[in-house]
Amino acid sequence: MEDMIKGNHAFAEAAIRAGATFYAGYPITPSSEIMEYLSVRLPEIGGVFIQAESEGASMNILTGASASGVRCFTASSSVGMTLKQEGISHMADSYLPFLAINVVRYGTGLGTLDTGQSDYLRDTRGGGSGDYRTFVLSPYSLQEAVELIGHGFDLGDKYGMGTILHTEAALGQMMEPCTFPEMKKVERRHGSIDGTYSFERISPLYRDRRQEAIDEKAKYDSIKENEQMWAEESLEDAEYVIVAYGLAGRSATGAVKQLRNEGYKVGLIRPITLWPFPEKAFDKVNKDVKGYISVEENATGQMVEDIALTLKKTIQSSKPVYMFANAFGIPTMKKIKADFISVRNGEIKEVY
C-alpha cells in the first residue's frame, strides 16, 4: 500500500528499511526534517541517532560507525555538505562506505533556500582533498529516491565507497505516495573493527600507496563500465536530445512527450547516476542527431561539461551541445519546449 509522505521523511524511512542503524548529522534547512524524523524513528528500532555539534563532527562520527561495520548515514544541504568534505575524503582513504543525503539548495556560499542543482560539480568530482570519487545518485521522484537509497548502500558496501543521494530542496519538501520495502537486516560488514588487534588496521603508513593507486584506477574503471544508470526516451530517431536529471529531468520527460506528440523528433537522457556519468546512453542515440540540450537548475551550467566530455570520446564529437540554466527554480515543461524551439530555429549558440 502506498503512503503519502513528505520527501525528507521518505529519505529517512528508506534508509532505515535498507538496514541503516546509525545516523549522525547537524540540522540545516531544507533537510532538517530528516533529523527530526530519525530522532524518534531510530530509537524505535534500536538504532543510534546523534545530533553532532557541527557538520564536520558528524562526518567524523560516521567514520567510526562505518569502521565498526554498521550501515550508517548522514544528511545535509549544499553548504553543510561542503563542511563534510574533509571527513568524506578521510573515509574514502580508508574505503569506508556511507550514505550522505544532499538536499540541494541553490546558490554559492550560504546560498538561498530555493531548490537547485548547483552542487553537481562538487559532488561528482570528489569535493575533498585527494584523488577519489563517490557514487552520486539522483532521483526524480520520491519513489525512485526510496529505491536508490537501498541501492546506494549496496554499492557502498560492494566497492568500499561513499554514496551521495543528490536530491534537491523541492524534492525534500514535496509530498508523494511511496511504497516502502520490508525492513532489511544487515550483518556487520566483514573485516570491520571488532576490538581485536590488527597491525594493518592501525598502521596505514605501511600501506603500499603506489599499488593502491593502480587498484583504485582499476576499481573506478570497473564502476564506470558496470554501474551506470539512466532513463531514456525516443533516442533511436531523435534529431535533438535533451539531457536533464532530478526534477529538471521530470519536467523534461513531460516536455519530450508533448514535443513528440506535436511532431518533433526529440529524445531524452535522464542520468540517474551522476557519477559514474551514463556515457553508454549516448551510444544509443541516432547517429544523425543534430545536437544535445542540457537543462539544469543552476546559473552557469555544470552537467553540460560531462555531456561535452562524453561526446568527445565518440564519433559524435562534432555535435553541438546547448545549455539552458534555470536558477531559482524547476524549469517548467512550457519553458523547456520554448527553449527547444529556440535551438531548433537557430536562435541560440551552442556552448560546446
Describe the fold and architecture.
There is one protein chain. The protein has 352 residues and is of the alpha/beta class. The protein folds into two domains: 3-226, Rossmann fold, CATH 3.40.50; 230-344, 3-Layer(aba) Sandwich (Rossmann fold), CATH 3.40.50.920. The chain contains 13 helices and 14 strands. The protein has helices at residues 7-17, 32-44, 55-67, 79-83, 85-93, 120-125, 142-159, 169-173, 199-202, 209-226, 246-261, 303-312, 333-344; strands spanning 3-6, 22-25, 48-51, 72-76, 98-104, 135-137, 162-168, 175-178, 230-233, 240-243, 266-271, 273-275, 291-296, 321-325. The strands form three sheets. Strands 3-2-4-5-7-6-12 form a seven-stranded mixed β-sheet, sandwiched between helices. It is globular, with a radius of gyration of 21 Å.
What's this model, at a glance?
This protein is α/β, with parallel strands linked by helices and 352 residues long. 40% of the residues lie in helices and 19% in strands. The chain has two domains: 3-226, 3-Layer(aba) Sandwich (Rossmann fold); 230-344, Rossmann fold, CATH 3.40.50.
